[in-house]
Write a structure and sequence with these properties.
By secondary structure, the protein is mostly helical. It has one domain: DNA polymerase, domain 1 (Orthogonal Bundle), CATH 1.10.150. The chain has 6 helices and no strands. The longest helix is centred in the N-terminal third of the chain and has 24 residues. The mean pLDDT is about 80.
Length: about 100
């Protein structure tokens, strides 16, 4: 006789964690999707981007949801040098973490 399919505590915790991450991602997206290019650039002031970098970001119309999807490779592919591409990618990850922590408070 087989036992009923009961989820283990670890699988329940994993499912709960996944649902929390999905909700957090949705909340972050709702906040960040409203950002215009200029608002994102203001948040990047401490990254020491030069006029060439800012010009590329303006030309590519980086804003809102697009920022959430960008990786170092994508920043490189639009013409940013390695330094700014790395800094922006790390900034994006830090921004996501910061928003997540704010929502959990």
């Amino acid at each position: 006789m087989s036992s009923p399919n009961i989820s283990s505590p670890s699988s329940l915790a994993s499912t709960s964690s996944t649902l929390t991450e999905e909700r957090s991602t949705c909340m972050m997206a709702n906040i960040i999707k409203k950002y215009k290019t200029e608002e994102l650039i203001e948040r990047w002031e401490d990254l020491d981007l030069d006029n060439d970098d800012l010009s590329i970001l303006h030309k590519q119309k980086i804003s809102g949801f697009s920022f959430l999807e960008l990786t170092e490779e994508k920043f490189l592919s639009i013409g940013l040098a390695l330094g700014p591409a790395t800094a922006l990618a790390k900034s994006q990850k830090a921004e996501n973490m910061k928003l997540l922590l704010q929502k959990l408070e």
